[in-house]
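Journal club side-thread
Mid-discussion, someone asked how the predicted structure for our own chain would compare to the paper's figures. Pasting it here so we can look after the session.
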Amino acid sequence: MKMAQKNAYDRMMSRYDDVLTGRKWWSWLYMHWLWGVDDNEIARKVLSFIPDDFEGKILDVPVGTMVFTHAKYQRMTNAEIVGLDYSEEMIRFASLRKKSDELHNLTLVRGDVGDMPFEDGCFDCVLTMNGIHAFPDKEKAFAEIFRVLKPSGRLCGCFYVEGERGVGDWFVRNVLNRRGYFVPPHYTLSEVEKKLRSLFGENVQLSNNRSICLFRCVKSK
């Protein structure tokens, strides 16, 4: 991950959860006016793809601050969860949530999604929420995610795609890309479908809410 991108996220940490959840008036306007979506609803839908009684090993990349996932992980007592993130600050915030929520089945790892420190086929599920648009090498990230997923394992997540909302695309090009929060080039919705089908064949379900695509896939045996 580029140093500028890491520093951008580290500087943003004090406002990060507010931006994602829209719980301040300015972040509500950012979410609903600029993007025309409710990230809380999108997160709930993506997380519903994984049942609370899921048994197996889950990779969450990037784990971020766990603003959307920590309550879910409290209910997933049968799962072994690994959270990976490149940012030291994200790991620090996630560690605070892990401690306060007593998430004893969660392990946090600092690492690069493009070169993950895990063996082939070691995860039953990979969750990637709001991360792919920030990965510098998206093709390598997808390859690594696919590599660590077991046969019959599932991938689910969401991220930004261009070409679905003009005002959002303008903001990405002129603000988020330049400040290092997002990293171009970005997929279109059709390019995401093509990429996922190249890896998972027909075992792909894909939809979008304006500029946010949601997906779940199953790796062939």
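Post-session note: The mean pLDDT is 92.
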